[in-house]
Design brief:
The structure is a homodimer. The first copy, chain A, is an alpha/beta fold. Helix content of chain A is 34%, strand content 26%.
């Protein structure tokens, strides 16, 4: 009997979850929920229907785990606690500063209704967080570094699009190679934000727009660009669609630490991701944790969890004995 | 109150555990046990004594977790189940083919005596295993690659030392750079053992030994070298001590996988270690899992576990709320 999954929200992330479910034989898609007109969606999975978001609670007995695919700014803070009343839930909430309060809200709702909620699942927060935890527990005398990229930052691309005269834009966050090398050397450098990443922008302007003025507006934009070395390229709309249509991302978590009676030995633990599709990879992580949510709840566990609280074996379709034989 | 740790076996690994305990404020060393004359050991930790191995059971009420630092060939298969009668235990059993039977033996003993046993802790098996599991659960349509090195293989060095006319030797396992690059490219190559690693040997010979004959004996040695491209360098004893005294190791676990409605997107997950001291790093992993063993047992859990069965949060001295705030 496959684990029955619902998808709540059908943007890039929701579509990615649909694809990921198709790769896992022990999971099956039951329904997609949307705030748009359900008729307007064309699902990939034959025989599966889209329903209005408001209908979700009525399907609580038909779905084992609901995967929430909305945004962290306004959707998830409201949706995850609400849906945890009816379902085991998994989300990718990624506003780091608000994780504690989101955790508490989901925990309360999930406990009251005997469900499991797993929040902040993806790669950062998610797999990168796990690697920070494992590496710091193993090498307590050390230092963590997280680098992001090369990849598209949706937030920064949006910020450029809001500038007058800009028609479209794509922003890449790029780790600085010599900063990466310094970290890998074990020298434990102190690195400012500017020293770790550069930002590269590809911008399509409206006819007659003042490109010099737009460039100045970008590179001096507070919070987004002012603290970075930023490069701006003006390109045509055709070039943007041809060369920058993908949503790649990735990055590096590196811990450099010392061991020995006088800290004489150095060790480097490095975890890196190189992703052709940021939303599809995040969706794949969400889908593996949906399996974990179901199993934890089957064991009688309730309440909110993060990736830190879940034994790795819960993520795999293999049994514990198979895992020991094949992967240990 | 610190968690009280015993070390059973005081070679390179046991000394590494002693160093690791000093880096963790919530852990303290209680005693070291040895099959050698305890008087012959000089411990690093002031005020701590070495005892004969046979005295361990008598200290069962003074130690929370015993970390076993013996070898996998003959020590651990006997010692871990035996000591699990008296203590929570952690070992680094690394004979992959015999893990299932070792697990069962430790599980039986630990359950009967209400202890936790964690086996096969280190980096492979251990952190590399974890990364194989996480990556394969996230990207089910993909392929795993494990590369070892550059590092010293103790077993292969010993095999060379057994050849007549050899005084001392050091063998390095080296990953083949273009095989690594092929894997990172996402092309999912089929790679034979020979294509993934080369072996480099530094050999000190007895006066008058036939170096050509020794070289032939090495490169044609079945199981150890015959399946690899092997390079042999003859050096002086001084050069061996000067240039090859360390025990570095490391390696790479790479998963290359596809997502998307028609598997059109490629993803690379890479975990790598670069270790100045193989035994001290393994010891640091053992020490973090000793913390987990204690906590699991405090929760009332009993029986055998592998790294797959343990939620990451158990490894860290930080509380769940601190971890969410600082690392998620």
């Amino acid at each position: 009997m496959a684990i029955k999954i619902g998808i709540f929200g059908y943007g890039n992330l929701g579509k990615g979850v649909e694809c990921a479910i198709q790769q896992n034989q022990d999971l099956e898609l039951t329904a997609v929920f949307t705030r748009r007109d359900p008729q307007s969606l064309s699902l990939l999975t034959t025989g599966i229907k889209a329903y209005p978001a408001v209908d979700a609670p009525s399907m609580k007995d038909e779905i084992d785990v609901m995967i929430l695919c909305g945004g962290s700014a306004t959707d998830l803070p409201q949706q995850t606690p609400e849906l945890a009343q009816y379902f085991n839930v998994v989300d990718s909430f990624d506003t780091h500063a608000k994780i504690p309060q989101h955790f508490d809200a989901v925990d309360k709702s999930a406990r009251q209704n005997h469900h499991i909620g797993i929040i902040s699942v993806g790669w950062d927060p998610g797999m990168f967080s796990l690697n920070r935890l494992y590496a710091s527990a193993i090498l307590p005398c050390g230092k963590d570094y997280t680098f992001w990229g090369k990849g598209v930052s949706q937030g920064h691309s949006d910020a450029i699009r809001r500038i007058e005269g800009v028609k479209d834009a794509r922003q890449y966050t790029i780790p600085v190679e010599h900063a990466l090398e310094a970290v890998r050397s074990g020298s434990n450098p102190e690195l400012t934000t500017r020293q770790k990443h550069t930002r590269e922008c590809f911008v399509v302007t409206m006819p007659g727009a003042d490109q010099q003025k737009i460039k100045e507006a970008i590179i001096h934009m507070p919070n987004y660009f002012a603290d970075y070395d930023t490069t701006v390229h003006f390109i045509t709309e055709e070039e943007l669609h041809r060369d920058h249509a993908g949503i790649p991302h990735g990055g590096f978590v590196i811990r450099s630490g010392k061991t020995g009676s006088s800290n004489e030995h150095n060790h480097i633990i490095e975890y890196s991701l190189k992703l052709d599709s940021n939303p599809e990879f995040t969706a794949s992580v969400l889908t593996a944790y949906a399996r974990a949510a179901y199993r934890l709840n089957q064991e009688g566990q309730i309440g909110c969890r993060s990736v830190f609280d879940i034994a790795p074996s819960f993520l795999s379709p293999l049994s514990a004995a198979e895992l020991r034989r094949q992967m240990l």
